[in-house]
């Protein structure tokens, strides 16, 4: 929790309380349904919570926005973002039932009224969203292709990724010439070693339906 205090001093007591509850909730559920590796559990706040909140450092969601978290896994980045933005609506989707079971339980325990959890494939989503987020789910071009029906005109994709993305970027821009690729090294935002190879990718532009 010290990391969350360090990088987000603006958080309210209610938000801090919810973030404080996250690790015990995931430890309890992880003992029943493994959704986070033991190694990552030891670094829960840096590798999962802070990583998710890195989006906040660069992009601001407006009240009333609709955000879709595709392939949410254990609920990241969706749950931390939903705590930070209580007036933004988040839909968290994953095709693996055991993962959405855990995510729904965490959402219920924290009483996050701005979160909807779906057990489905994200390419089946037809409702329009302002922003689509994901964390290391698939190559960017594939994610854009599979979420065309879920992207509102003028919306954007925000992907948390790592490593060398040159080929992935080239593939994306070759397929979607109207899109613009903005890449930020997370090591410029956080000093922890985990973030040395981590990046945020923001895609903006028009994707033909």
Structure description:
The model has no long low-confidence stretch (mean pLDDT 93). The chain is an alpha/beta fold and 209 residues long. The chain has helices at 2-7, 13-30, 38-42, 44-58, 78-84, 97-110, 140-146, 166-175; strands at residues 66-70, 89-94, 115-119, 129-135, 151-162, 180-185, 198-204. The protein starts with a helix and ends in a 5-residue tail after the last strand. Helix content is 39%, strand content 23%. It is globular and about 45 Å long. The longest helix is centred in the first third of the chain and has 18 residues, at 13-30. The chain has a 7-stranded mixed β-sheet with strand order 3-2-1-4-5-7-6, covered by helices on one side. α7 packs parallel to α8 (166-175). It has one domain: Vaccinia Virus protein VP39 (Rossmann fold, 3-Layer(aba) Sandwich), CATH 3.40.50.150.
Features:
single chain; 209 residues; Rossmann fold; seven-stranded mixed beta sheet; 8 helices
Number of strands: 7
CATH class: Alpha Beta
Helix content: 25-40%
Q: End-to-end distance, in Å?
A: 42 Å
Strand order across the largest sheet: 3-2-1-4-5-7-6
DSSP summary: helix tally = 8
Secondary structure layout plus pairing:
Elements: H1 2-7, H2 13-30, H3 38-42, H4 44-58, E1 66-70, H5 78-84, E2 89-94, H6 97-110, E3 115-119, E4 129-135, H7 140-146, E5 151-162, H8 166-175, E6 180-185, E7 198-204
Parallel strand pairs: 1-2, 1-4, 2-3, 4-5
Antiparallel strand pairs: 5-7, 6-7
Short description:
The protein is 39% helix and 23% strand. It has 209 residues and is an alpha/beta fold. A seven-stranded mixed β-sheet has the order 3-2-1-4-5-7-6, covered by helices on one side.
């Amino acid at each position: 929790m010290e990391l969350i205090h360090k990088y987000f001093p603006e958080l309210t007591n209610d938000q801090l309380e919810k973030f404080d509850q996250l690790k015990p909730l995931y430890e309890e559920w992880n003992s029943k349904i493994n959704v986070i590796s033991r190694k990552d559990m030891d670094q829960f706040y840096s590798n999962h919570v802070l990583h998710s909140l890195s989006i906040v450092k660069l992009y601001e969601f407006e009240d009333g926005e609709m955000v879709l978290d595709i392939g949410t896994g254990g609920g990241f980045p969706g749950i931390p973002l939903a705590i930070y933005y209580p007036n933004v609506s988040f839909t968290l989707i994953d095709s693996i039932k055991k993962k959405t079971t855990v995510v729904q339980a965490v959402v219920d325990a924290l009483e996050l009224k701005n979160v909807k959890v779906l057990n489905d494939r994200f390419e089946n989503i037809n409702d329009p969203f302002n922003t689509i987020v994901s964390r290391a789910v698939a190559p960017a071009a594939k994610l854009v292709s599979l979420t065309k029906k879920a992207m509102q005109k003028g919306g954007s994709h925000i992907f948390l990724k790592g490593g060398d993305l040159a080929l992935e970027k080239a593939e994306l821009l070759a397929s979607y010439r109207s899109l613009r690729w903005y890449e930020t090294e997370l090591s410029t935002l956080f000093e922890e070693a985990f973030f040395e190879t981590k990046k945020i990718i923001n895609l903006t532009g028009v994707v033909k339906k």
